[in-house]
Amino acid sequence: MLSVIANVAVGLLTSLVGLGLGALWERGRRTRAVYRRAAFFGVRPGEQCVIVVGTKHGQPGTTQHRDLRAVVELTVLLSELGCQVSVESGALRGSNGDRTEFCVGGPIGGSNPRTGGHLTAHLPGVTITPFGDGPDSVAIVVGGRRYYFDRGHQEYAVVAKFTPPESTRPVVLVCGQSSVANQAAVHFLRREYARVVRAVASADRYCLLVKVSHIDIYSFHRSELERDVSAEAFTAAG
To answer: How far is CA 38 from CA 50, 82, 155, 203, 204, in A?
Structure first.
């Protein structure tokens, strides 16, 4: 009788140990996954982040609805990674210092002047043509190729990650040809980041082109990685 009880006790103890080890392994797996995802976006769980967002053209103090949606999606993402978030306007000046910065919106029309500064200082191989009536309006030029703005049909966004020399944390720039492209790029990266990680040369510094197509049918949902243009973007055009 005692041997039966002992066997049952040993079995229960073995099961409990196994369950405990399994729970620890699963917790460790999830923690490693969070840290891998956080590393791609340039953040650390528990740290402070700042989202810098532009304004509507000609309407200071007002933000495009879709840019706000992009900010909300970024906030959800950063909360999932255990980060604390504050939001600033594109008029923000100075270094991002020890806060990872997410800068959303293009510089055209003064919408987000901080984006323009980031492009000039850190992405000399990327040019955005001025707004106008011609086919070149708001085209993204990188690596000798032009990516045209077909409003409401097919648009592009530049997504770049770099660390300014005066900062200890990186900047993640989301610069779309419209607020739809901004939202599409954020949504795409949040959903497909693991696939993007496998496609980029380095997760420490990168510049990607995200294409959003069939906007008139699928809004911001049909987006894909067009190219990794890191080599061209961080080198001044000859």
So the answer is: 15, 9, 27, 11, 11
Interatomic CA distance for residues 228 and 156, integer angstroms: 13
- Which of 155, 124, 117, 161 lies closest to 139, judged by CA? 155
Reduced to 3 states, what is the DSSP secondary structure of residue 208? Answer: strand
pLDDT in tens, 89-135: 877 888 999 999 999 998 887 789 999 999 999 999 999 998 887 78
CA–CA dist 72, 53 (Å, integer): 11
One-letter amino acid at 173 equals: L
Residue labelled with tokens 């460790």: 28
Are 169 and 99 in contact by the 8 Å Cβ rule? The answer is: yes
The whole model's pTM is what? Answer: 0.84
Q: Could you tell me which residues come within 8 angstroms of residue 48 by beta carbon, excluding any fewer than 6 positions away?
A: 83, 84, 85, 86, 98, 99
Exposure pattern of 217-238 as b/e (b: 16+ CB <10 Å)? eeebeebebebbbbebbbeeee
Q: Specify the amino acid at residue 134.
A: G
